[in-house]
Amino acid sequence: MELARVLFGRSTVARYSLWSLARNALSHQEDWPRQWRSPEPAEHYDVIIVGGGGHGLATAYYLAKEHGITRVAVLEKGWLGGGNTGRNTTIVRSNYLWDESAALYDKSLTLWEGLSRDLNYNVMLSQRGVLNLAHTLPDVRAGRRRVEANRLNGIDSEWVEPARIARICPILDISTSRRYPILGATWQARGGVARHDAVAWGYARAADARGVDILQTCEVTGIRRDRDGRVSGVETSRGPIGAPTVGIVAAGHTSVLAAMADVRLPIQTRPLQALVSEPIKPVIDCVVMSGAVHVYVSQSDKGELVIGAGIDAYNSYAQRGGFHVLERQIAALTELVPITARLRMMRAWAGIADICPDASPIIGATPVPGLYINGGWGTGGFKATPASGWLFAWTLAKGEPHPIAAPFSLDRFTTGALIDEHGAAGVAH
Ligand SMILES: Cc1cc2nc3c(=O)[nH]c(=O)nc-3n(C[C@H](O)[C@H](O)[C@H](O)COP(=O)(O)OP(=O)(O)OC[C@H]3O[C@@H](n4cnc5c(N)ncnc54)[C@H](O)[C@@H]3O)c2cc1C
User: Fold this and answer.
1) Which of 379, 383, 385, 388, when mutated, tests ligand 1's pocket best, judged by the most ligand atoms within 8 Å of its CB?
2) Which domains, and CATH codes, for the chain?
3) Is 259 helix (H, G, I), strand (E, B) or coil?
4) Residue range 350-384, pLDDT digits in tens
5) Ligand 1 pocket member 89 (CB < 6 A)
6) Ligand 1 pocket, 52 CB below 6 A?
7) What is the pLDDT of residues 30-52, one digit of tens each?
8) What is the pTM of this model?
9) What separation in Å is there between the alpha carbon of 250 and the centre of ligand 1?
10) Which of 288, 256, 280, 249 is nearest to 372 (CA)?
11) Is 267 touching ligand 1 by the criterion CB < 6 Å?
12) What sign does the dihedral 385-388-393-394 (CA atoms) show?
């Protein structure tokens, strides 16, 4: 084995390439090295990230890559990507309304476009375009306004009329006799989908390769503070771990973690469900969303229709939601695309979404020195994963926010400088 390592350059972080694929064919593809280590926790790190979802792992990766900070641990209570990262409907786009959000989400889309190459891991970004349908005159006005706002921010966004919609997505019925006639749509051609698990795994592998310790089954149960109230580390199910800087990136539990340091957050935590149909031949090769009918759907590479539901009406930390929400979802899908009426559904699941009052995230410092938060991404944070990690790494490394992240500080809930994205972030993930 050691000889093979010397001869063929095998290491724990073998580069994926055509050459490595061919080389591993010699051992029937059975001898690939592990993608990341499983180390024991050290006593002390420079930075601890709580939460091993895409955002936490991306933060660790960019801390190491962009800022040279490698004494970093990512603590995950379950398994990597087992939270919302592995449960979402994978829609990626950047056509949000306000300038602050446009800067944030377009930074993300730009990072997405180079991500597979950067991580040496295929995150299967498929820029198949995202349609957001308008069914009423107010829908049309809001959609056109968003398109104009996007264009002022340099984002590729267009208004498309029904005839073009029929060409983009032929299974949509554009006849005007429908209960919800399609009057037009916003169209972002650079939007699409990506493989969610691969995003978590790709960031994990790349962060590990740069020396980050990834600790799974390591639940944070308390936040330690010194006499001055400054953060000094965390209590975990695997013992105490010290660090002067702790970043909470624990979607679904942001306020639970913050409460451990006596910080109260303006967050509602709700179950959010999705479901997939049995696989069928290709019928939708873009992402279709409708706020009025309340449905968003795309087709996976395996042929399943991937359908997103709305949030449940109550706060909950259970990874399951009400059946009536799914029932309504199926009704909405058949309303919009009647040919799906006889399609069988294969499975459904839920994640836990932390939602801020203005449907925008919190990225930045807390009143507790050394404690930072990246959360409140609600129902639409998957698309933000690269920028969220990139910006939060900057904040942790420099102790101050990057200009793109600055408007998303916690104190906007006291200053009133909210970034209301309900229109762009509602059903439209
Ligand atoms: C059904 C559904 C559909 C969605 N669709 C889309 C979509 O199409 N497009 C889009 O952009 N977004 C979508 N989202 C939202 C998106 O999934 C999330 O905003 C995003 O994945 C959040 O990523 P994360 O890395 O912060 O969270 P997560 O992946 O949830 O990671 C947080 C991690 O923290 C861990 N954790 C929690 N508490 C502790 C603790 N005490 N100690 C240690 N670890 C802890 C959790 O186990 C979890 O793994 C959807 C969400 C759901 C649920």
Assistant:
1) 379
2) 47-119+196-267+358-425 (3.50.50.60), 130-192+268-355 (3.30.9.10)
3) helix
4) 999 999 999 999 999 999 999 999 999 999 999 99
5) yes
6) yes
7) 989 899 999 999 999 999 999 99
8) 0.96
9) 7
10) 249
11) no
12) positive
